[in-house]
């Protein structure tokens, strides 16, 4: 039998093993620093934000099946891994609309961002600016195009648009985008009518939040969030300030169920910059839209927040890229919760991915620093995935490729 030789313990060696750093007095700070994944960040976000707000971000439409399927598709990605390549230098940069971004991960438009964190849209755009990424501001943003441009003048910014019932209203917000240096319009087309958000209905979510008896208990549970809400600017749809219509009518005016593809041609005539169509969910529509003079398509089911039984964007991505990828840039969003999810979509042919919930979890957990941490986690996973799958740049990621397991 082999035995280990024992000796008298060495005090200096024992001493060198002791970690002398004091535990942080701020329990959140320590947990944030230890967060490894976006799920860890989401857990912290959940603890810091009222349930109704967290649920608004996390939830989907009806039975939330589309979102679950969207996530599941990413879990089934399998890279065509190549070994013994020199991966000592990794370049994650990519060109989007002809200009370089540091990594092909963009910030999707999300309405009402100041509900998640009091700084809201500028905090996210500032991370985009620092990291050389793209930020898309929602029509339903709580920061106006002018305020965003003023707060983060160097950010590369796109403006998300709905074709509204009155074209003059659409023109008014398009003008705000143009006057404030927005590079591209992102036309969302998966909202002819609002999705059915049962989770929000059950929670009694209203915009802005109403103060009821149970609000008192909610305040007691998340006092900092409420303090921030009450001590910072009014929560409002900032692009519509000065409207002579009540905000409660806004939803009805923003979604026009009679919208058809002719509106893309109309938009082309009033906006000379790039147009990206967001919310495409079939190969047929991608082919039709690519013929209309747009520059990009975002395959998206709105993160499962609209139609709860559409096709999973990732599953149609390779076919769409094959059909029209040489004419328009194909992006994708929905369910991207890690750098490996993002890398998988790129390997399947996407030009770039957009994230929504992931950065909102970061914002809810720790404002701008939380959003930055989300990007850093994703970047680490993305780079690590590139090296381990044998790709040194984005072109090689696509060349190596991936598949979705059955
Ligand atoms: C809280 C929230 C608000 C959103 N608001 C908008 C919006 O105003 N306009 C829009 O086009 N998409 C909106 N989206 C959809 C996102 O742009 C994006 O398609 C989706 O979040 C991607 O899925 P993911 O959250 O799983 O990353 C919203 C998403 C969330 C989570």
Q: What does the average pLDDT come to? A: 92
> Which structural class matches the secondary elements?
alpha/beta
Q: Rounded to an integer, what's the Rg over CA atoms?
A: 23 Å
Our count of helices gives 19
Ends apart, CA distance between termini: 50 Å
The major sheet is characterized as:
8 strands, parallel
Overall 3D form: globular
Strands ordered across the widest β-sheet: 4-11-10-9-8-7-6-5
Beta-sheet strand percentage? 5-15%
CATH architecture: Alpha-Beta Barrel
Q: List how many beta strands DSSP finds.
A: 12
Fourth-tier CATH superfamily name? Aldolase class I
Oligomer: single chain
Amount of helix: 40-55%
Please describe what this structure looks like.
The protein is α/β, with parallel strands linked by helices and 406 residues long. It has a single domain (45-404), classed as TIM Barrel, CATH 3.20.20. 46% of the residues lie in helices and 12% in strands. The chain contains 19 helices and twelve strands. It has an eight-stranded parallel β-sheet. Strands 1-12 form a two-stranded antiparallel ribbon. Strands 2-3 form a two-stranded antiparallel ribbon. The relative contact order is 0.19. The model has no long low-confidence stretch (mean pLDDT 92). Bound molecules: flavin mononucleotide (FMN). Residues 56-57, 108-111, 138, 140, 160, 188, 278, 300, 302-303, 305, 333-336, 355-358, 360 line the site of flavin mononucleotide.
